[in-house]
Specification:
alpha/beta; Rossmann fold; 2 domains; 7-stranded mixed β-sheet; 5-stranded parallel β-sheet; 10 helices; 16 strands; about 30% helix; globular
Length: about 375
């Protein structure tokens, strides 16, 4: 693994609910040393320490308060049901969060389900009780390998796991040799992160990064035949569907991406110092001109943006998030308070930095409804 990007002290969690500024500012940190393997395309944090991670009850990562995200979720659920005939089936979701996606799959397809997630908290779930779903507030581990299922989903979880082959091999053991079982994984798209030099998309929890090809190579390596590979959500997410097999099914055209991800890493390596300097200059100019700046997005991207650039309260006083569970909590590492959108009616910012371009139109509409017209900058 060739190291190409380092951060000395990144908060070890970005979406833990932190209830006072002192705790947030002094939150534990860890090192990021991203390495790239030019033989398989995998990218990972070679300095990652899994012992620093705790995905317990204060972990709050739902995106279900966004109409934009909910529309994507519903479309994805309907697409999977249609593609793989998920009707009247038994579904298993590993890393189900608060159950929103599993609920959609079961509701739209008439399925039953089991969801595993140590952070599951019924009181924070946005979906109503559904007697066809069982939630297990625990990590998916070897003690659950006998869980039966026709469809196994794992969304936005594998990137948090350092020993990826070991984990996917455990899923392979759970699936067994049922030739009709379908496995579906979704992870961030490494080509989007590194090709766009999105340093704000690099944070401690994400220790593993995949392209379409490296994900396919992983699945074939542990005994799956790859059925489909695709990207969605403005290419931010990549998806794979597979089934048990020897791993020698015909290669899909998108698997041949070793040269492309190598080019992306080279581009990122050459470009990120300039981009960091440019953002620091812009933020200093806005501060010098007395402009009020807020970030919209109190999740991992916002934490990484603030901590990587070293932006304190003197530059950005607060961060906006539509998730009411985050209101009144604080950003790890820099200590900005997370406020509800309505706070901006009083604060009246001059600049709003949108931490994910896919939400720009949604945020613009929300600001317009409040009678606000700040300058919108998108990372």
């Amino acid at each position: 693994m060739r190291i190409f990007y380092e951060v000395e002290a990144a908060p070890v969690h970005s979406v833990i609910l932190l209830h006072d500024r002192e705790t947030a500012v002094n939150f534990p940190t860890g090192a990021i040393k991203l390495g790239h393997c030019d033989r398989c395309g995998f990218i990972g944090n070679t300095a990652f320490d899994a012992g620093l991670q705790d995905y317990g009850g204060e972990y709050e990562a739902t995106q279900g308060f966004s109409p934009t995200f909910n529309a994507f979720h519903r479309r994805l659920a309907a697409d999977l049901i249609a593609r793989y005939d998920l009707r009247g089936k038994r579904l298993v979701e590993i890393g189900c969060g608060m159950g929103e996606f599993l609920h959609l799959l079961c509701e739209l397809g008439g399925n039953t389900g089991v969801g595993f997630d140590p952070a599951y908290d019924k009181s924070r779930s946005l979906v109503s009780d559904f007697d066809k779903i069982i939630y297990v507030a625990d990590y998916f581990s070897e003690k659950y390998v006998n869980t039966p299922g026709d469809f196994f989903a794992c969304k936005m979880t594998l990137e948090h796991i350092p020993n990826t082959a070991e984990f996917v091999r455990m899923v392979r053991q759970t699936v067994g040799d049922n030739p009709d079982a379908i496995i579906f994984f979704q992870v961030p798209n490494a080509r989007y992160v590194f090709g766009d030099v999105a340093f704000w998309d690099i944070y401690y929890e994400h220790c593993s990064y995949f392209s379409l090809g490296s994900m396919a190579r992983l699945f074939r390596h542990v005994g799956f035949d790859v059925m489909d590979l695709w990207t969605d959500y403005d290419d931010q997410y990549l998806m794979i569907a597979a089934r048990p097999g020897p791993g020698d099914s015909p290669l899909l055209p998108s698997e041949n991406d070793l040269a492309l991800i190598t080019q992306d890493v080279a581009h990122f390596t050459a470009s990120y110092p300039r981009l960091l300097a440019d953002w620091r200059r812009r933020m200093a100019e806005m501060k010098g001109n007395g402009r009020r700046v807020v970030l919209w997005g109190g999740g991992s991207k916002g934490v990484s943006f603030l901590t990587t650039l070293g932006l304190g309260l003197d530059v950005v006083e607060c961060v906006v998030d539509i998730n009411p569970n985050k209101t009144g909590t604080f950003m790890a590492g820099t200590g900005q308070e997370i406020v509800a959108p309505e706070f901006l009616r009083i604060y009246r910012p001059d600049v709003v930095i949108v931490m994910n371009p896919v939400y720009r139109e949604e945020i613009g509409r929300d600001l317009q409804k409040m009678g606000l017209s700040p300058e919108l900058l998108t990372v």
